[in-house]
Amino acid sequence: MVLNPFHLAIQVRDIDEARDFYGAKLGLPEGRSADHWIDFNLYGHQLVTHLNPGIGRDGKVPSIANPVDGHGVPVPHFGVVMQFDQWHAFALRVRKVIPEFLIEPHIRFEGQPGEQGTMFFLDPSGNALEFKAFRDIERELFAK
What we know:
This protein has helices spanning 15-25, 84-94, 137-140; strands spanning 7-12, 30-34, 37-42, 45-51, 64-68, 71-75, 77-83, 101-108, 116-122, 128-134. It is α+β, with helices and mostly antiparallel strands. It folds into 2 domains: 1-53, 2,3-Dihydroxybiphenyl 1,2-Dioxygenase, domain 1; 61-144, 2,3-Dihydroxybiphenyl 1,2-Dioxygenase, domain 1 (Roll), CATH 3.10.180. Strands 1-4-3-2 form a 4-stranded mixed beta sheet, covered by helices on one side. The longest helix is centred in the first third of the chain and has 11 residues, at 15-25.
């Protein structure tokens, strides 16, 4: 499967905080940047953080949660689909830098089509991220 990289621009409340979270904590390489935005390489995709110091009353982007497999899944959210070994290694690494998971790393839909590893957490501005894994991405990503 050949995928085209996506481009996603999100709002953050503080550029230095975004640089620390996405760059130092998550280990994403930084690309171009200016005073009000930063490009990050999110596993081959372009994630751009744009400064919006007026995000919400408490400095967080708004979201809701929808029930999926017994958990409240935040909407909106974004992330990356990985192979299981890469996902397990990532989960071990981020456990050291993420103070709280919205949904702890676990296996969802176990034994069913679309079985996947998943985890959810927030960036400091309240943007929800999901990192998930499949054993066979091409066959399972859109399995019914």
